[in-house]
Design goal:
The protein is an all-alpha fold. It has one domain. The chain starts with a helix and ends in a 24-residue tail after the last helix.
Length: 87
């Protein structure tokens, strides 16, 4: 996954984290008939979306090559002709 895609996922997650904080503050304000149950449903949906995006980020990080991982392995010295063979 490219860095642009990762930034998009991370930005979306950050937006959802802010939304979750807002909803938590509203819930902390106390019970309000008709609103509290709605806020609970919304915070559960927001948390589910956060979990999905976090999972996608983690999967993409595991699937993307690590820096330097695509470089060929160093050659073994046993194959190298050092010019010091005795015949």
């Amino acid at each position: 996954m490219t860095q642009d895609h990762m930034r998009t996922f991370e930005k979306a997650r950050d937006q959802l984290l802010g939304r979750r904080r807002f909803l938590a503050e509203a819930l902390a304000g106390g019970y309000k008939k008709g609103q509290t149950d709605n806020q609970i449903e919304r915070i559960v949906k927001v948390q589910a979306a956060i979990d999905v995006i976090t999972s996608a980020i983690n999967e993409d990080r595991r699937a993307s090559p690590r820096p330097g991982a695509s470089e060929p392995a160093p050659e073994s010295h046993s194959d190298v002709d050092l010019g010091c063979r005795v015949m």
